[in-house]
Write a structure and sequence with these properties.
2 domains; Nucleotidyltransferase, domain 5; binds 5'-O-[(R)-(carboxyoxy)(hydroxy)phosphoryl]adenosine; binds zinc ion
């Protein structure tokens, strides 16, 4: 990213859910290093994330991962100019770990710290790619808890075009996977099983496909899957066919609404972000439809789609740079006057201020 007054090295810390992510982003040289520890194996036996176990594991991992990233990037803590951590939304106990470590590091080093909105991290992560999209663009944000279409005009300038009125797409994958007896997280498990199946056999609904707006609804899909399973699936092929149909139904709605959103905004660029955007069928279908409609689709590399520290370092750096560029920058967290820190387990993206605007308190 160009336009910076001076190079800035940002340490990013992500601990909002079940992945501990740490990364170092240099505003001139790009990503210098990143490390990730996934807790999937730990939570798998419970069929979902156990919040208390998640917090404890973040505590165990965060310091060794930070050391590892610094070592791999051949940097010392003294060289770090700023610290960014995920402030929300997410699991309270998990967020507290990253926020406490980030704030303490910033205080000890006398460097600014910034709390980053997790979804803004996802939203801006495609800009980390070698061929970044230019503003403005439409973003399809599909994570475990959120399904949103947004018009993105600049850092912090987001207009919500539509969102799920109930379950998120990731949730629909996860709940359907659970019903099918597949592991957690459900998205990759459904995608894997779907490779052996054929869609069309079970005819699942495409909720809100023709609703004429840009909102989504996925809770009916889970009910339809439950009903179908209750009637009995004769064999493994039937399970694979149902997994394939679940994926096809979710993807068809996501693709149709995304294309409609880009057209409605009179734009030509679509960016996808969040864990579900790692889905290969979604990426292939978006590419095919976009090609026909003259739309360019930007997909972050799969490792950047799911939770990671790089997107937090990057979003934090962009915000700090944007605020520093303003005539009267808003103080982030005065490094010598730390009395505490905030976490925001529930934090709608729509309440996120533009750079330079004061944040509303909780
Ligand atoms: O963005 P993310 O890593 O965490 C949140 O911020 O929620 O998204 C996690 C979600 C889960 O619902 C997971 O099942 C889904 O992303 N997911 C996928 C795939 N990889 C992760 N869904 C479909 N296909 C995938 N390949
Ligand atoms: Zn996420």
């Amino acid at each position: 990213m160009g336009g910076y007054t001076r190079p800035m090295l940002t340490l990013g810390i992500e601990t909002s859910c079940d992945e501990t992510g740490v990364a170092l982003y240099d505003s001139q040289r790009g990503l210098l290093g990143q490390a990730l520890h996934s807790q999937v194996a730990m939570h798998e036996r419970y069929g979902g994330v156990v919040p208390e176990l998640a917090s404890r594991d973040h505590i165990r991992r965060i310091v060794p991962l930070t050391r590892q990233v610094l070592q791999e990037a051949d940097c010392t803590l003294a060289q770090v100019d700023a610290i960014a951590y995920t402030e929300g939304p997410g699991l309270a106990g998990a967020l507290l770990v990253g926020a406490a470590v980030g704030t303490a590091l910033g205080y000890a080093l006398g460097k600014p710290t910034i709390g980053v909105h997790h979804l803004e991290g996802h939203l801006l992560s495609p800009l980390l790619s070698a061929d970044p999209p230019a503003f403005p663009f439409v973003a399809l944000l599909v994570s475990g808890g959120h399904t949103q279409l947004l018009k993105v005009e600049a850092v912090g300038v987001y207009t919500l075009l539509g969102e799920s009125v109930d379950d998120a797409a990731g949730e629909a994958f996860d709940k359907s996977a659970k019903l099918l007896g597949l592991g957690y997280p459900g998205g990759p498990a459904i995608a894997r099983l779907a490779e052996q199946g054929h869609s069309g056999r079970f005819g699942l609904p495409r909720p809100k496909l023709h609703s004429g707006d840009l909102d989504f609804s996925f809770s009916g899909l889970k009910t339809a899957v439950a009903t179908r399973i209750a009637r009995g699936l004769p064999d493994d092929q039937a399970r694979a066919d149902l997994a394939c149909e679940v994926q096809a139904a979710i993807v068809e709605v996501l693709v149709a609404k995304s294309m409609a959103a880009v057209q409605a905004c009179g734009l030509r660029t679509l960016v996808i972000a969040g864990g579900v955007s790692a889905n290969r069928h979604l990426r292939a279908q978006l590419d095919a439809h976009a090609l026909r409609q003259g739309i360019r689709v930007h997909c972050p590399e799969p490792a950047l789609c799911t939770d990671n520290g790089a997107m937090i370092a990057f979003a934090g750096a962009l915000r700090l740079q944007a605020e520093a560029a303003l005539a009267q920058p808003v103080p982030i967290t005065a490094p010598r006057a730390v009395t505490g820190f905030d976490i925001r387990p529930r934090w709608p993206l729509s309440s996120l201020p533009r750079p330079g605007e004061n944040r509303a308190s909780n």
